[in-house]
Amino acid sequence: MLCSACGKQVDDRSPFCSSCGAPVGRAAPRSNTKLVVIIVVALVAVFALFAIGGIVAAVAVPRFAGAQTRAQEMVAIQNIKLIASAQVQYYSLYGHYARNLSELGPPSSGPPGPLSADLIPADLAAGTRGGYTFILRSSPTGYTLNANPVKYGTTGRRTFFFDESMVIRVNAGPGPATVSSKELYQP
Question: Which residue, among 121, 120, 124, 132, has the nearest Cα to 74 in the 3D structure?
């Protein structure tokens, strides 16, 4: 070790420098306390970030899922309006309402006609679009249309009913909406 006063080499066992006589200060045993503190602080920071991330996820994910469900419900309402418009056009062309969605859809070949009028897109004519299943049936007075979520609670939390009265009805539950369900308010 070196003398702190004169800088000369000092025997490790000697309490004084043999050159200048200055007392030799022994270095305190090296401590890992600083390293331990740094590691503990780093671990606390990492755990805090995970905790904050978990809280953010717990708040944001349900809100995102809820927004996505509401968006799919709005798309379902737009598809109901599209089918309603197609039914009016179909009635003016053929003198009666279409009995099922495929009659409103595009033909597989040839020109449009009463069996496939080409008034709605093929995926909607197949019955499923945007997280909802659409079921069109003929009725004694015209037709009924039900729109139900493909997976209740995920793709939608409401079911819809529509008929030739042109009123969209809604049920805020998994059961299908009916003619006696609440009218959907639309501004």
Answer: 132
Any residues with CB less than 8 A from the CB of 12 and at least 6 apart, and which? Answer: 1
CA distance 92 to 89: 5
CATH class of 66-183: alpha beta
Residue 66 CA to residue 175 CA, distance in Å, equals 19
Domain residue limits, the chain: 66-183
Q: Please give the Cα distance from 90 to 113 (Å, whole number).
A: 10
Rg, C-alpha atoms of the chain: 38
Q: How do 169-171 and 182-183 pair as beta strands?
A: antiparallel
Local mean pLDDT, 10-residue blocks, the chain (187 residues): 82 82 65 75 78 66 70 93 95 95 95 96 95 94 95 92 94 93 77
